[in-house]
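Here is one chain, start to finish.
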Amino acid sequence: MTEDVKETFIGAAAADSRTGGGGAAPDPLAAKVRTLAPSMTRSMQRVAEAVATDPAGCAALTVTGLAELTGTSEATVVRTARLLGYPGYRDLRLALAGLAARRGSGGSPAVTSDIAVDDPIEDVVAKLARDEQQTLADTAAALDTAQLGAAVTALADARRTDIYGVGASGLVAQDLAQKLLRIGLVAHAHNDPHLAVTNAVQLRPGDVAIAITHSGATGDVIEPLRVAFERGAATVAITGRPDGPVTQYADHVLTTSTARETELRPAAMSSRTSQLLVVDCLFTGVTQRTYATAAPALSASYEALAHRRATPRPRTTAR
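Its structure:
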């Protein structure tokens, strides 16, 4: 994706999802636009740029008209609509008309969150907070709750769960494993690719394997997931690229979103934020399903660590 198209595309999408003080729900189309932009072909990018920049104008066009406007083909327009989650162009037009109406009813313009080297720390805090909030809203809007529910069911019933992730995603994998262990489930996080594969070989039907990769193309994560898939384990991919290679071995795909990457805000920062939201949704769903055993397990782990919590020292009065 060229930088000028990328900036216009993401910036326009951000405008329709940030609202004023009314606190409207995040727009699913805007979330999909930001998430899927990097995986589109150049011709699809042109269609997406037009849709994100002028939803009202595009809603008034036929599929032929939008193809002519963007210098693409009708097939490209339809493929773009389907990639954004609509059965056909007619459904996308209806969504665009609704989006245009919401924009015209008081949505505020996008606020740039670029962080400069000389920004004061209070501005850095404010900008990062805006980006984190946007990332969480986008992830929540785009998350397929049917896929999430199926993944929760698989985890709740699993004999054992293996979680694969490297780098920042490896930290998220450890977070999920620790959460599951605290409610009495057998879970292991693997960030060593060799150990991940050797453990995946031991999986079988009734087990669960989870791969966490923002790019959807991390080989060290895909390989153990493939092995687990071939052994018959239920497989889950948590990824920012729902069309990435990792999804071919995933029974359930949970899509994450990220804020725009900048020099001082690498993709790993915002991807971690969205991944942690998905992990928390999984954990909470599993805890609900297994509450009879999860609640006592949580209480027991809390009590077991109680003696390790620091006791505040009594204050002494200066004389």
